[in-house]
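Design job #97: recover the sequence.
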């Protein structure tokens, strides 16, 4: 098989894979709920933790990643929610 054909087949197979394979708490958000109410500037996260901090007005991609921790803050930097995605 030609390399381009193999690439197309692999991409097609990946596109059909289910997105929610790891469960609703795959990123471990339940363990970070104590951060709600804390200023994000005072928080230290593990270096290998896939996460993003989302402030009001931030442009955010809509891709869902089960293992990514989303930390939402208010306009003052206080964490208002922690979830996977």
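Job complete. Output follows.
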């Amino acid at each position: 098989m030609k390399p381009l054909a193999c690439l197309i087949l692999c991409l097609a197979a990946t596109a059909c894979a289910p997105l929610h394979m790891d469960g609703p708490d795959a990123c471990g958000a339940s363990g970070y709920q104590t951060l709600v109410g804390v200023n994000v500037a005072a928080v230290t996260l593990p270096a290998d933790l896939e996460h993003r901090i989302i402030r009001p007005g931030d442009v955010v991609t809509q891709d869902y990643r089960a293992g990514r921790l989303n930390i939402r803050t208010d306009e003052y930097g206080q964490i208002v929610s922690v979830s996977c995605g």
